[in-house]
Design brief:
- The protein is mainly alpha-helical and about 425 residues long.
- The protein has 19 helices and no strands.
- It starts with 6 loop residues before the first helix and ends in an 8-residue tail after the last helix.
């Protein structure tokens, strides 16, 4: 049976979930609106720094006190995640604002430690993260609903905003932008599907998942809808095959790889057909132009990149204004990491992705559990999201923690995660 939690443990869980949302940018419109689109150096204002540092310091201290394991060992065991810090550190050398890059690297180091210890704490205490994920989904729904219904000036994009007025009417909940809200809701919906397929349907989880689907639609984010559809498609595909023989599971992985290669080759033609039928902008709202600009700025900085967190924003400010675009980000997580960190970033990113994919496929082939199905589907959802958004390796980002959760799950495969029955429905 899943261990019964004490009152203090439940309260601690709730506070840690709220802290996670705060560290992911929740309620920033209340205290940092000026930083959202106009902060060239990438440094947060004093209020943001106090909130982030308070969450990280208190949470990390709590994890260290409550853990029986050495936190250093927890981090070293997950070296593949910690390795993502190295290229940003090296990019300080070529950054046009070294102090700004150093600040962002320090923030990334602290946040990475926070994410690894966060997941490690629940894997040690519960043998898995299902119980805290259940709380994360339900608390997220309550906070978003309350903000949208009670404070629509914050929960919904307004026509009189300084920036992004084109999104007026789109829901954003506790976040500052509809895309973040849509993608977070999409991942919460995916997690809800996973928990229901593993433990059986419950009224609270079913309702929470349905509401997250509504959030995705009302965000108006096409990328969030697409990434959620990708999650559902591959979750169903692998769920159908998970109970079959190991050989069938191997063939299902091979088919996925062949499908992805074929889809990638045909993608330009597929997109042209889609654009001609729907009338959508073939530049993805200017994203492809921004990507070309980012690559062009790398001349002479190919090895260590433009400088993590600040280089692109500083160097592209003039050209983007000349192009009449106001992007403060590259809008692609993989390209952003490569452009920021150069060839060192490209090498580490390739190693990281290959390691994640191989571990996920191996976990599915060997175990065939619902968790192994979720980990592959989530990985593909995460990859698809980063094609149009910049959420790969960034501090103060809830997606990075969910990525850490997925990676540590396929590497740990703990008894609670694998063997608990449907009667152990997380609270």
């Amino acid at each position: 049976m899943h261990p019964k939690l004490s009152f203090s443990e439940n309260i601690s869980d709730i506070l840690l979930v709220i802290g996670l949302f705060l560290s992911g940018g929740a309620f920033r419109l209340l205290y940092a609106y000026g930083d959202l689109y106009g902060d060239v150096a990438g440094a947060e204002n004093a209020t943001s720094q106090i909130i982030y540092l308070s969450v990280y310091a208190s949470s990390i201290l709590y994890f260290i006190i409550r853990s029986k394991n050495n936190p250093i060992k927890s981090i070293s065991r997950n070296y593949i995640i910690a390795l993502l810090i190295l290229p940003p550190f090296l990019s300080i050398y070529s950054s046009p604002d070294p102090s700004g890059t150093i600040r962002r690297v320090v923030a990334l180091i602290i946040f990475t430690v926070y994410c690894i210890l966060y997941v490690s704490h629940y894997m040690e205490r519960d043998g898995g993260c299902d119980a805290i994920v259940s709380k994360l989904i339900k608390i997220g729904v309550l906070l978003n609903l309350a903000t949208i219904l009670l404070v629509p000036s914050i929960g919904i994009h307004q026509a009189n905003e300084i920036a992004q007025t084109v999104h007026a009417g789109s829901w954003r909940g506790i976040f500052y932008h509809r895309s973040t809200f849509g993608h977070v809701s999409g991942m919460m919906a995916g997690l809800g599907i996973y928990l229901m397929m593993k433990y059986g349907f419950s009224i609270s989880m079913s309702l929470s998942t349905i509401i997250n689907f509504v959030f995705v639609v009302m965000s108006g984010s096409g990328g969030a809808v697409a990434s959620l559809m990708i999650f559902i498609l591959f979750f169903v595909y692998f769920y159908i095959n998970c109970a079959r023989s190991q050989q069938i599971r191997q063939f299902s992985i091979i088919f996925l790889i062949l499908f992805c290669i074929s889809f990638y080759i045909a993608l330009p033609e597929i997109f042209n057909i889609y654009a001609s039928l729907t009338g959508e902008d073939v530049t993805l709202s200017g994203r492809t132009q921004i990507w070309m600009l980012a690559f062009s700025l790398m001349t002479g900085r190919e090895t260590t990149g433009l400088g993590y967190g600040v280089g692109y924003t500083l160097l592209a400010e003039g050209p983007t204004r000349a192009m009449f675009y106001r992007f403060q980000a590259i809008q692609n997580g993989f390209i952003e990491y490569y452009v920021s960190c150069g060839l060192a970033g490209l090498a580490v990113m390739a190693l990281f992705i290959a390691n994640w994919m191989f571990a996920s496929f191996k976990f599915f082939i060997k175990n065939g559990t619902v968790l192994s199905v979720f980990c592959i589907a989530f990985m593909l959802q995460f990859f698809s999201m980063n094609i149009s958004e910049e959420n790969f390796v960034k501090p103060h980002n809830i997606f990075f923690l969910l990525m850490t959760l997925s990676i540590m799950s396929v590497k740990v495969g703990s008894p609670y995660v694998e063997h608990k029955s449907k009667s152990a429905q997380p609270a």
